[in-house]
Amino acid sequence: MERGADIFRAGTGGPGIGGPRLAARRIAFGAGLAVLVGLLGGAASLLRQPNLGVREGTERPMVLVPIGVALSAFVFLVARSERLPAARRVDVGVVYLTVLCFMSSLFRHWLPYAEVDVVRGLPPTSLLLLFFAVFVPVSTWRMTIAAVAGVLADVAALAFTVSAVGNPSPPWNLWLWLLLPNVVVFAVALFIHRFVDRLGESVRRARAMGAYHLVEPLGAGGMGEVWRADHRTLARPAAIKLIRPELLGSGEAAESALTRFEREARATAALTSPHTIAVYDFGRSEDGAFYYVMELLEGMDLQTMVREHGALGSARVVHLLLQVCHSLGEAHEAGVVHRDIKPANLFVGHVGRAHDFLKVLDFGLVKIEPGIEAADDDDPLTEVGALVGTPGYIAPEVAAGEEATPRSDIYSIGCVAYWLLARRLLFPGRTAVQRLLAHMNELPEPPSRFADVDPALEALVMRCLARDPAERPASTEALAEALEATGLAGRWTERDAARWWAEVAGAERAPTPDAREDATVPDGRERDAGPSPESAPPTQDRRARKGS
Question: Could you tell me where the DSSP H helices lie in 83-123?
C-alpha cells in the first residue's frame, strides 16, 4: 500500500505526478544510464588506433571516467535500495548530480583555453541540469539547490584547473562566455520544473474522485480502469472503477449508459448483505468520467481458486453457494438482478477472523457493446440498454434476448456450481456464439462424470440448469433451503477453511495478469486461461483484490 501512496499521493514533497519513491527510481535510471555511457566511452577510448589517438597536448584525465562509473554504480544501488527512506535517496541523487557536474566540468576545462579552441560544445552541466529538471520529480527547493550546486560546480572546476593544474586564468570575458550557458540553463531548468510540477498537479486533481485520491492502477478493461484509492481523511483503502464517457459512444447513448450506471450504483449501495460488495460512493469526476468507490478485498475469486487449486468438495460448494444466495436474495427483493454471476465475480477471502467469506461483485455493471459476439468469454456481452452477461454462465432465456429475472441468476449459480465441482464449463471448447446456442438448445452432462459429487447436490445443480425457468428453484431463498436440505451445510467448518487458507493458498496464489477467462484461440475454439486484468487480484502481496 505504501508504494502506491508514495508515488501518487499529494503532499509528498514532489510534483503532483510523483513523489520521493518515483524520484528515487528516476535517479537510479539516470545513474544506470551514466554507467552504461561511461563504460562504452571508456571502451571506445581504449580501442582507438594509435594514428587516431589523442593529439599531443590535448590529453585529459581519463581516470575521471572509471571514477564516474564507480560513483554512478554506487548511486544506482543506493537509489534502488529500500533501506534508506525515499527522501534520503533523493538527497543522495542531488549530491550525485553536483559531483557529476564537477567531474564532467573538470574534464571539459582541463586543457588551457589559450592553446586550444575556446568553444567546446554545450557545457555538460547544462545538459545534466536539463535532464534532472525534466526527468526527476523533486520538490522546487530541491531542484533549486541542485541547479545552484551544479552551476557552482562548473565554476569550481574551472577554478581548480587554474589553481591546481596550473592553467593560465582565462580573461574575464572568457569566463563569462564559458559559464553564461549554465546561467541561462539554470533559469530554463527552474521554469521547466515548475511547468512539469503544475502539469503533475493537474493530473493529481484529475485523479481526485470526490473524497478519494487515486493511488495506483489495479487493472484495465474495455469499460475503463480500476484503481486503488485512499480516502483523504479516513484511514480506509478502497477500489475505484472509472467508466470513461468516450468508451460508451457519444450523444444520448453515452449519457443514457452513464445514467444507468448511476442508478445501479445507487441500488447496489443500498444493499446491506455482508456478502455483497460494499459501495461507498459514486459520482462524476471533473473530466466527466463516472466512478464508483468500493471496498478493497483480500483473497481470490472463485475462477482463480478452482483454476489454481482444483475442484472443490461438495460441502465447501454448499458453504459458498449459501453466501451467494444471501447476497442475491436481498438484491432480488430490491429489484436488482445481477445478470453476470460467474466465478470471477464471486470473491472469497478473509473478513475479520472469518475465512471463506464470500462477496458478490459487479452488480449489473457490464460492458456496452454493439453486438453479442466477443473475442473471449470473459467479456460481458450486451447491446446498449440490454444487459446480457457472460456466455459461459448466461441463462438460456437471456441468451435468446429476453429480460433477465431472478431465475436467470439462479441458472448462472448452477453454472458456477458446475465449475466449482467439476472444474469445467457446461459447454467447453466452443466460441461465444456457439456457447450461447448451446445454453438454449442442449443439456449439460452431469458434473459427476468428471468429479466426485454428492448426488443430492448434483440433482439440485441440474435443477438450477433447467432450460425452462419455471423448473428451477423459485427464488434464492428456495435454493438456499434446498442447499440446506442436502445435509451438506455445516460440514465445511471455519476450522477447515482456516486450514485450507493456511496450508494451500499461500502468498503466490494470484493469477497470471494477462490471462483471460475462456479466451478463444486463433482457430475459434476456446482454451482454459486465467481471468482478465479487470477480474485479477493485483496488489503488493498478491492477495488484495479490487472490489469491482
Answer: 86-109
Residues 320/356, Cβ–Cβ less than 8 Å: yes
Say which residues have a Cβ less than 8 Å from residue 194's Cβ, sequence separation at least 6: 140
Per-residue pLDDT of the chain in tens (548 residues, 90 and over written 9): 333 333 222 233 333 334 677 788 888 898 888 888 888 876 776 665 444 444 444 466 777 888 888 999 999 999 888 788 888 888 898 999 899 989 888 887 777 665 444 455 678 888 888 788 877 877 777 888 888 888 888 888 888 888 877 777 777 667 766 777 777 877 777 777 777 666 655 555 555 566 777 777 777 655 667 788 887 677 678 888 877 666 666 666 667 777 777 776 777 788 899 999 888 888 776 666 778 888 888 888 999 999 999 999 999 999 999 999 999 999 999 888 888 899 999 999 888 888 999 999 887 543 333 333 333 444 444 443 444 678 899 999 999 988 889 999 999 999 999 999 999 999 988 888 889 999 999 989 999 999 999 999 999 999 999 999 999 999 999 999 999 999 999 999 999 999 999 887 554 443 333 333 333 323 333 333 333 333 333 333 333 343 43
CATH of the domain spanning 298-525, picked from 1.10.357.10, 1.10.287.3510, 1.10.510.10, 2.60.120.10: 1.10.510.10
Phi-psi region of 126 (alpha: psi -120 to 50; beta: other; left: phi over 0): alpha
Grid coordinates representing 7 are 508515488
Which sequence positions are flagged as catalytic?
340
Q: What is the pTM of this model?
A: 0.56
CB 389 within 8 A of CB 402: no
Which residue ranges make up each domain of the chain? Answer: 2-206, 208-295, 298-525
Task: Please tell me if the domain spanning 208-295 has the same topology as the one spanning 298-525.
Answer: no
Structural fold of domain 208-295: Phosphorylase Kinase; domain 1 (3.30.200)
